[in-house]
Design goal:
This protein is of the alpha+beta class. The protein is 25% helix and 25% strand. It has three helices and six strands; from the N terminus they run αβββββαβα. It has a six-stranded mixed β-sheet with strand order 1-2-3-6-4-5. Helix 2 runs parallel beside helix 3. The protein is globular and about 45 Å long.
């Protein structure tokens, strides 16, 4: 007995999904690095790695000093911040990973970057300011933000 042409056809598997704007956006993975000595602690250096992406900015911050060993440092905090459409002067943020010694610094930098760039910002921070005064930490925030904005300005964002 031969197969009849009147038999119902089996469903075909779906074809490959087509690329959309969200899936076809290619990141600009060209991280840039800065190292800046802190003004109130000349032996401590703030290291900043900036990765500008099409839809966000990723920044990693850490500090080193002559007494630090060359071993690996702790991960630190990781914060996500995004512009607030209802109140542009108050960006929204959430810690994705929190370490008590670095969460405030990471949150501060992430919120400033989200407000100034108008884009979401991911900020990782293992910077240590133990035993320092608040002026030193605020100077480090200023240096980090100025450095990031300088790099983003060069990229003609």
């Amino acid at each position: 007995m031969s197969a009849s042409s009147d038999a119902p056809s089996l469903p075909q598997p779906p074809s490959e999904p087509t690329a959309t704007a969200a899936t076809s956006a290619s990141p600009t993975l060209h991280p840039q690095q800065l190292s800046v000595p802190l003004p109130l602690s000349p032996h401590t250096t703030l290291h900043v790695q900036i990765t500008p992406l099409q839809t966000s900015t990723m920044v990693f911050l850490t500090t080193t000093d002559p007494s630090s060993t060359s071993s690996l440092s702790a991960l630190g905090s990781f914060v996500y911040s995004m512009p607030n459409r209802l109140q542009p002067s108050e960006p929204l943020s959430t810690p994705l990973y929190a370490v008590p010694g670095s969460i405030d610094f990471a949150t501060r930098v992430a919120k400033i970057l989200a407000r100034r760039t108008g884009l979401p910002a991911y900020v990782g921070c293992s910077a240590v300011f133990g035993g320092s005064v608040i002026e030193e930490e605020m100077a480090a925030v200023r240096l980090a933000v100025e450095g990031v904005m300088g790099v983003l300005g060069e990229g003609k964002r």
